Amino acid sequence: MLHSCNQGKMTIWSFCLILFLSNSILVLASHVRHLCRADQKNALLEFKNEFYVQELNSNGIVGDKKTEKWRNNTDCCTWDGISCDPKTGKVVELDLMNSFLNGPLRYDSSLFRLQHLHSLVLGSNNFSGTLPNSIGNLKYLRVLSLGDCHLFGKIPSSLGNLTYLTNLDLSVNDFTGELPDSMGNLNKLTELHLRSAKLSGKFPSVLLNMSELTLINLGSNQFEGMLPSNMSSLSKLVDFEVTGNSFSGSIPSSLFMLPSLATLVLGRNNFNGPLDFGNMSSPSNLIVLSLLENNFSGPIPESISKLVGLFYLDLSLWNTERAMVDFNMFLQLESLMFLDLSYINTRSTLDTSIFSPLLSLGYLDLSGINLKTSSTLSLPSPMGTLILASCNIAEFPKFLENQTTLYYLDISANRIEGQVPEWLWSLPDLKYVNISQNSFSGFEGPVDVIQRCGELIMLDISSNAFHHPFPLLPNSTTIFLGSDNRFSGEVPRTICKLVSLDTLVLSNNNFNGSIPRCFENFNTTLSVLHLRNNNFSGTFSEESVSEHLRSVDVGRNRLSGELPKSLINCTRLEFLNVEDNIISDRFPLWLRSLPSLQILVLRSNDFHGPISFPGESSSFNKLRIFDISENRFSGVLPSHYFAGWSAMSSVIDIVDVIPSRYAGRDDSGNYQNSVTMTAKGSKIELVGSVFAIYKTIDVSGNKFKGDYPEKSHQSSGSSRF
Ligand SMILES: *[C@@H]1O[C@H](CO)[C@@H](O)[C@H](O)[C@H]1NC(C)=O
Ligand SMILES: *[C@@H]1O[C@H](CO)[C@@H](O)[C@H](O)[C@H]1NC(C)=O
Ligand SMILES: *[C@@H]1O[C@H](CO)[C@@H](O)[C@H](O)[C@H]1NC(C)=O
Ligand SMILES: *[C@@H]1O[C@H](CO)[C@@H](O)[C@H](O)[C@H]1NC(C)=O
Ligand SMILES: *[C@@H]1O[C@H](CO)[C@@H](O)[C@H](O)[C@H]1NC(C)=O
Ligand SMILES: *[C@@H]1O[C@H](CO)[C@@H](O)[C@H](O)[C@H]1NC(C)=O
Ligand SMILES: *[C@@H]1O[C@H](CO)[C@@H](O)[C@H](O)[C@H]1NC(C)=O
Ligand SMILES: *[C@@H]1O[C@H](CO)[C@@H](O)[C@H](O)[C@H]1NC(C)=O
Ligand SMILES: *[C@@H]1O[C@H](CO)[C@@H](O)[C@H](O)[C@H]1NC(C)=O
Ligand SMILES: *[C@@H]1O[C@H](CO)[C@@H](O)[C@H](O)[C@H]1NC(C)=O
Ligand SMILES: *[C@@H]1O[C@H](CO)[C@@H](O)[C@H](O)[C@H]1NC(C)=O
Ligand SMILES: *[C@@H]1O[C@H](CO)[C@@H](O)[C@H](O)[C@H]1NC(C)=O
Asked: Mainly resides where (predicted)?
């Protein structure tokens, strides 16, 4: 410090001097009197040494190695993460949230000598062990926060001894079993956070004893059974969240009658039965009601209009059983900002202008509802997100022209023909556009019209009738899905300028020429490249391979030459399909070192030569699908060849298990990996998540000598796979 001061001007000099002096005074002062008590300091230093400090594997977390700055010769009450009682010097708060602590919380940890702690915040560390019973010794705790700590085992019953607790957070851990009954003693508890904690069993009835609770979050666990019918003891409850469990039965009306209740988040369970909002004499305070993906059927109760304070309402997948719905019931919910009525299975036809009283609406999902002719559609307020998939819309909704705040637009799976209007790309905030599964044939305006949309991130135009010319895309484009159209000619090299491109899917078109040779040093993270079923020719060159690739499908083209050796640098590669080309190469044994490769399909090319080499082991560790059929491989195929392929251990007979609904596109997007399976003579395309269950080897249609491996035999049968 003095060194840098030496070079300063006079003013800086004096500033430095003052700084230096005041620092010394502080240091001196702290030598004089430490607030911290020796027993507390030693407990803390020992606690520090119980862990090794190392960045956790969970990427991208910004943390702070607080304990590394603790020093024996300074006042522990000044340490990062510590607060002391100003009179007694006892440590009352310990906050080591996200401090890269690795190691178990020991039963005899010196932590439990900090008897006077009021607040213990150790979230986002890696204790990977159980929560010891001795936690019950810290009997003055008000706040206990152990979220995201890799804890497992049972929650100790000694928690029930922490009778001063007001705030308990055990979210995001791997516990087993139920909450201990002793927790019924925690009658001062106001907030209970147990999201994603792997808990199971019935709704913990002990919670009904905790009448001070304002927040209960049991989301994303494995709870089941009914909610208790009388929840009136939770009279101070404000937030109740149980999303993503298996609760069933009806929602008790006593819950709706809790006077303070503001958010009720019950989605993704099996709730059913009549929805009874009870006897709400005073206006409800409910602002969030989320019931999506439950098992509700029959009419949506019109009494929902009594919930006049709602600003978030999600009734997605309520099954009205093709009944008519009177959408007027939503008009009294004047504060609504978020409304999701998607796939409620009504035969009503809706005129969106009915929503004109909802002046705050910013998110609207009406997917699956028939909309009245689009030329008359309108919406009252500036929308951010508008999702009108499968709404039987036949014309491009013109009212969007004035929706200048729109950033997410989905009008997929409708019946819209003709050109995408030029003005769409002038909406200044537009980032996500899905117009797939319509009958569009082109883009109105000049070839660079989409580039006006300078913030575009995702564009899905797949399954339309788009043809040449291929549009120029803004360089913000991250995901471009253009499969199943009629594009022809070469892929314009302007695609090479899309520095943010992550996903490029152009399968099932008529492109020809070579695969763009610009992904190699491409300063992008191109991870999905699907060019299947076009007329690409020439070699699949090294320059076409980005080392970020996760999924590559160039099958069913006319590619020749060898496999690009640069694939060896794609350590994330999971899926490689080059089937049905004329690639002429030897067996790419070198791919065995790719740690993530799960699916390798070389079928129907001109690969040749042996696939096994004396002294070389084949270690495709994660491989699940291996198809090298219809090539010219020769030589001996030793039956032990596949012995080390552990991921392949349960080969099943695909011919018998392909459910017909998987034959073709599944509904979770259209850019997944796909493989053509030949079953009983007809080709069937397998797409998407269904892959997860298939494990297969096909080496048929080659010239091997020797025994075929047992598993291959089993799975290939009379036809392939
Ligand atoms: C801290 O220093 C004191 C003496 O200065 C010593 O007695 C004590 O053992 C030290 N604590 C640790 C944990 O090193
Ligand atoms: C947590 O610690 C365990 C055991 O020390 C270790 O195996 C695991 O990789 C660690 N997890 C993270 C995310 O660092
Ligand atoms: C909890 O308290 C009870 C009685 O107050 C005592 O018997 C029990 O040992 C305590 N448990 C723990 C783990 O501290
Ligand atoms: C409920 O709390 C009271 C104290 O307020 C306690 O005596 C009782 O045992 C608790 N009941 C349960 C089921 O834990
Ligand atoms: C619900 O429980 C409360 C006590 O928690 C009780 O006072 C009330 O009578 C019960 N209501 C019904 C309808 O059983
Ligand atoms: C859905 O509700 C029906 C009654 O309406 C019931 O028979 C069925 O078991 C429920 N399904 C689930 C998964 O809870
Ligand atoms: C609803 O409240 C009214 C008075 O506000 C009362 O007469 C009626 O009995 C209540 N009904 C139920 C089911 O609690
Ligand atoms: C958009 O707003 C302008 C000016 O407010 C109006 O003239 C035009 O008719 C509106 N367009 C549509 C399709 O509503
Ligand atoms: C995006 O493209 C435009 C021209 O098309 C260019 O001027 C601009 O610098 C590019 N932005 C980035 C971040 O590369
Ligand atoms: C990638 O970025 C580096 C540095 O940002 C630059 O030198 C190089 O030319 C870029 N490569 C390509 C192909 O754009
Ligand atoms: C793999 O990457 C390394 C380092 O970037 C490079 O030197 C090497 O040539 C690459 N290998 C292939 C086959 O492209
Ligand atoms: C676009 O919409 C279709 C049909 O609704 C859907 O299957 C697809 O996943 C959507 N695309 C994206 C990228 O979300």
From this structure: membrane
Say how far apart CA 276 and CA 635 lie, in whole Å.
72
CB burial string 257-289: b at 16+ within 10 A, e below: bbeebbbbbbbbbebbeebbbeebeeebebbbb
Length of the chain: 721
- Domain limits at 578? 565-720
**Pairing between strand 674-679 and 682-687?**
antiparallel
Look at the block and give the residue holding tokens 């499968």: 390
Hey, what are 171's tokens?
């979210």
DSSP-derived secondary structure letter, 325? -
Whole-angstrom CA distances from 108 to 111, 121, 141, 696 are: 8, 19, 18, 51
Domain containing residue 670: CATH number: 3.80.10
Kindly give the pairing relationship between strand 82-84 and strand 91-95. antiparallel
Ligand 4 proximity of 211 Cβ (cutoff 6 Å) = no
Phi-psi region of 484 (alpha: psi -120 to 50; beta: other; left: phi over 0): left
Tell me which residue has its CA closest to atom 10 in ligand 7: 279
What are the CA-CA distances from residue 310 to residues 296, 339, 382, 427 (Å)? 20, 10, 19, 29
* 45 alpha carbon – ligand 1 mean position (Å): 9
Predicted TM-score (pTM) of the model is 0.83
**Order of strands across the sheet with 703-705?**
608-609, 632-636, 703-705
For residue 325, tell me if it sits in a domain: no
Cα-Cα end-to-end distance for the chain: 72
**Nearest-5° Cα angle at 501, 498 to 505:** 110
Contact 591, 568 (CB under 8 A): yes
52-58 own/partner pairs: CB under 8 Å, 24+ apart: 52/102, 52/103, 53/99, 53/100, 53/101, 53/102, 54/100, 54/102, 55/100, 56/100, 56/102, 56/125, 56/126
The CA angle 269-274-276, to the nearest 5 degrees, is 100
Token pair 């080392």 in the structure block, residue: 547
Mutate to test the pocket of ligand 5, among 212, 233, 235, 237 (most ligand atoms within 8 A of CB): 233
Nearest CA to ligand 9 atom 10: 475
Index of the ligand 1 atom closest to the CA of residue 72: 1
Burial of 136 (0-12, 13-18, 19+ CB in 10 A): middle
Q: Could you tell me if residue 689 is inside a domain?
A: yes
- Domain assignment present for 587: yes
What averages of pLDDT result for each successive group of 10 residues across the chain (721 residues)? 39 45 44 76 95 70 81 91 93 94 95 96 95 96 97 96 97 96 95 97 95 97 96 96 96 91 96 82 84 95 91 96 94 94 96 89 95 73 92 91 93 96 96 98 95 95 96 95 96 88 95 88 78 96 90 95 94 93 94 89 92 72 82 75 55 30 30 48 43 58 60 29 23
- Under 8 Å between Cβ of 228 and 203: yes
Q: How far is the CA of 523 from the centre of ligand 10 (A)?
A: 6
Give the ligand 10 atom nearest the CA of 518: 13
How many other CB atoms are found less than 10 A from the CB of residue 347? 12
Total tally of structural domains belonging to the chain? 1
The ligand 3 atom at the shortest distance from the C-alpha of residue 133 is: 13
SS3 for 587? Answer: coil
538 in a domain, yes or no? no
Query: What Å distances lie between residue 596 and 269, 505, 506, 529, 600, CA to CA?
Result: 34, 21, 24, 17, 11
Q: Which ligand is nearest to the CA of 102?
A: 2
